[in-house]
Amino acid sequence: METADVIVIGSGQGGVPLAADFAKTGSKVVLFERDALGGSCVNYGCTPSKAFLAAAHAAGRAQLAAKLGIHVQVEVDFPAVMERVRGIRDRFKQGTKQRLDGAGVKVVCAEASFIDQHTVTGGGVTVEAPIVVINTGTSALIPNIPGLAGTPYLTNRNFFDLQELPPRLLVIGGGYIGLELGQGLARLGSQTHLIVRGDRLLSQEEPDVSEILAQGFEQDGISLHFNVSAEQVAYADGVFTLTLSNGETLIGEALLVVIGRNPNTNALNIAAAGIELDHQGFIKINDQFGTTCSGVYAIGDVATQPAFTHVAWEDYRRLKTILGGEQRTRSDRVLGYAVYTEPQVGRVGMTVEQAQQQGLNARAVTMPMAHIARAIEWGHDLGFYRIVVDRDTDQILGATLVGDETAELVHVFLSLMEARATWKVLEQSVHIHPTYGGALPSLARLLIGDDMPSCPNL
Ligand SMILES: Cc1cc2nc3c(=O)[nH]c(=O)nc-3n(C[C@H](O)[C@H](O)[C@H](O)COP(=O)(O)OP(=O)(O)OC[C@H]3O[C@@H](n4cnc5c(N)ncnc54)[C@H](O)[C@@H]3O)c2cc1C
Fold first, then answer.
1. In whole angstroms, how large is the CA radius of gyration of the chain?
2. Alpha carbon of residue 370 to chain centroid
């Protein structure tokens, strides 16, 4: 058996920099990874999906340019699209390897499990260390639909291996991964059906967000099926037949299953370390990322946190300072996220309903795209900007931005909220005309009853 200073299980978005930083300062670090280095983000998540969407949205925008008087015949070279996606993924994966090797981390390419509280084994290597960090992430949740097992259905894991554009695509799931990948293939030419168990897309968002996304998807020719579930799958001669709970039957050459995520905790033999899981199998942690086993920490998706790369990355930064002896917690941070559909959704903080449920004296104001000069000039008419504030303190509590490139714009609110600024800072700011950001002071001015659109010419 070997000894080390730190063991990291999983090369996710927090585990890799943490391992590298410790190794660079002279600690002996062993990292176990059972699959591809870089975890979901690099291999099956953010990186390939966003590289894929770059192509898909280029095609979508070209088609929508007709309303600007530009008529384009879009020709999609699907193998070239996917080659580029895989090339970027491989480059990032290689970067992860170089980072770990360069820092002197010992990488064990094997599935790891606990033998006892501080001993981990995998691939014939057994290591004991006073600090163990679990960063094992999540995998696609597969529903128990009769006929599904054994068919070549897609998840986020094999989606980016596609070699040919499926003429017809069936997507089970109305969450952000299904929307991004479903809209992406639709924009590249697949006739797409989205099957949603509930009555709207992105059910965790406010209903008007779902409504606008549905309008965008219908513009792209995507068929939306609400309040139905998939009851039966059949596969023959390269074609899936999906029977829905309303009796309808849908046909497609590809079936994408994206109904949620499962924590990667099964293989860890977590009981040997006395680590408690929640009812869904995620690792319970305290405010300093500590599990119920002293000296064992968990970061990223597996640790009951919002499942985003920037969260896992920030977990690493905070855990590093905590292990360095500083007083730090994980809960005092402003978190946002984005959905890279078109229109995009940029979100930070609370909705007005969430704030009111917390007992805050909250109010929200909303500016539609029709009041934003840049949106009209650019022909982006779907969406709105909304800010949520505390009436008592003037603090900004949250924002929801739906429209063009709102994943970028939402950072204005992230920074204001991090600085604990009030909405009056935004109201006083002089932003550039005509930009999307230029509408934000006007949005804040709605709070003082000024209903002037973002541009006096409107
Ligand atoms: C299609 C898709 C798109 C996404 N897009 C975005 C986006 O745009 N923006 C964003 O912020 N987030 C996005 N995410 C989420 C993001 O990928 C994750 O939040 C991020 O990867 C952080 O995960 P992590 O570090 O917790 O673990 P992961 O990245 O999942 O890494 C965990 C690693 O642990 C390994 N592992 C598991 N068990 C063991 C074991 N027992 N032994 C050894 N190794 C093990 C796994 O093989 C894996 O490599 C997306 C996810 C998906 C699926």
1. 24
2. 29
- Look at ligand 1, atom 27, and give the residue with the nearest C-alpha: 137
* Ligand 1, atom 8, residue with closest C-alpha: 46
Ligand 1 site residues, Cβ closer than 6 angstroms: 9-14, 32-35, 39-41, 44-46, 49-50, 111-112, 135-138, 156, 177, 264, 267-268, 300-302, 307-310, 312
Of residues 450, 436, 411, 229, the one with CA closest to residue 343: 436
| Bridge partners for 249 per DSSP | 243
Pairing mode, strands 296-298 and 131-134: parallel
Residue 338 clears pLDDT 70, i.e. is over it: yes
| Residue 310 pLDDT > 80 | yes
* Angle, CA 169 vertex, CA 168 and CA 175 arms, to 5°: 160
Q: Quick check: 132 pLDDT over 70? A: yes
Ligand 1 atom closest to the CA of 303, numbered from 1: 26
Task: Give the pLDDT score at 452.
Answer: 63
**How would residue 454 be classed by pLDDT, with cut points 50, 70 and 90?**
low
Give the single-character DSSP code of 331. Answer: S
User: 0.85 cut: is pTM over it?
Assistant: yes
Residue 63 CA to ligand 1 center (angstroms) comes to: 33
Q: Which ligand 1 atom sits nearest the alpha carbon of residue 35?
A: 47
Question: Which H helix or E strand runs over 386?
Answer: strand 384-390
